[in-house]
Amino acid sequence: MQTIQSExxxxxxxxRRGDGPPLILLHGxxxxxxxxxxxxxxxxxxxxxxxxxxxxxxxxxxxxxIGAADVLDREVEYVRALVDAVDDEPILVGHSYGALTAIxxxxxxxxxxxxxxxxxxxxxxxxxxxxxxxxxxxLLEAGKRREAVKRYVEQVLHPDGVDDLDAWLAAWPPWPxxxxxxEEVVRMNRAVEQYRLPDRLDVSAPVLVLSGTxxxxxxxxxxxxxxxxxxxxxxxxxxxxxxxGPAEAPERIAATIRSFLHANSRxxxxxxx
Length: 273
Prior knowledge:
By secondary structure, this protein is α/β, with parallel strands linked by helices. 40% of the residues lie in helices and 16% in strands. The chain has one domain: Rossmann fold (3-Layer(aba) Sandwich), CATH 3.40.50.
């Protein structure tokens, strides 16, 4: 494990493996950095760089004072620090909130390509009524931490309902450790609720937007909106795959990323083995 420090002094540990074109993989909301491990195993001819998000298993001295408006900016800041630390222009790959971070980082950082799986962006009509952060905060103030995180799981991962949520959670690897991150998830959700997708993203790099037919409808809608807002974009939807696509179908995801990078040769700065 290595560590990089952002401009504002945040220490971000990251795992670096392999030898080849650099891929920076950004994990999402409640997923740990290890979420990318199944995908990484299919990308062994790349250098994969997997950081741990600030506040998610990392030390953040002023964590309690970070507001929603700062959350996304700080994550973009550490991604840009990682970009500056690699020798070649990296490919930014993100899932959910990590996908939103990758897109925002690419508006300023020099990246050769961006891959975004169902970015955590709310369609305008959905965002106007979004109150998940408020409902989670009310539960936290009432001392109901587990219930607060359950509300997140229900709305984001299972918006169409799940027969037995407790059974599902028992089999979900981040549970119950993720309950410790409840405050961070509230801040993250406030940042998502405040974010508005511009009509045109200021991203010059080629963008691959991914989605799954079994994911939440609002995230599938937003994925298509990101595709339409990016000047140089390709959209791929995986049949029978949910919001957890990189974990459910890592070989298919990796193959699609590889195909996209080959089609956009400038996204691969050095020859693949």
